[in-house]
Amino acid sequence: xxxxxxxxxxxxxxxxxxxxxxxxxxxxxxxxxxxxxxxxxxxxxxxxxxxxxxxxxxxxxxxxxxxxxxxxxxxxxxxxxxxxxxxxxxxxxxxxxxxxxxxxxx
Amino acid sequence: xxxxxxxxxxxxxxxxxxxxxxxxxxxxxxxxxxxxxxxxxxxxxxxxxxxxxxxxxxxxxxxxxxxxxxxxxxxxxxxxxxxxxxxxxxxxxxxxxxxxxxxxxxxxxxxxxxxxxxxxxx
Lengths: 106, 122
What we know:
The complex is a heterodimer. Chain A is mainly beta. Chain A has strands spanning about 5, 10, 20-25, 35-40, 45-50, 55, 60-65, 70-75, 85-90, 95, 100-105. In chain A, a hairpin with a 5-residue loop joins β9 (about 85-90) and β10 (about 95). Chain B is mainly beta. Chain B has strands at about 5, 10, 20-25, 35-40, 45-50, 60, 70-75, 80-85, 90-100, 110, 115-120. The radius of gyration of chain B is 13 Å and the shape is globular.
């Protein structure tokens, strides 16, 4: 399954609302879709699994939604520490990642 | 707290071999499948392989099948990735990551190590 994320880069200011898109080339079984955040020089961190369940310790400003082939990660209000790269990953059929969306400071 | 620590990275010539280790602590290692995920410098993430909690079932990405071999020693809480016939395109940071679904087939990654860099170059 090929995962496509859009846009490639978002330039935003702290406090703004962010919506990241992830589209699968075919239906993701049982909404087995995860989102990760990665900062430079660090390992990825799990944010969301099963399309909409927040991982342990993840603030509630992060939320996931979607089903089938279209999924969304929303950050309700950008904090300075949220500027990073974001990846989606499907695990309904093996495991494949999207190419990432960079959220940068405007 | 859950910790995964990779080691064994380095520089190797094309066609050479390297063995990576992943030492786990802070959880019951034998209850969890463990994955390897890699990332070429400045690039995206690629799933590499998974070994189930009991070490019996293993699955590999097509890009490494037949060249990489996973094993684990649950008595030592350690995972190994033997990499043979290395190619320049294998140059990446290699992360071990715990399966978020425990021993289930839910292949998402809830804890990650800090990564170890493998450089394949002549």
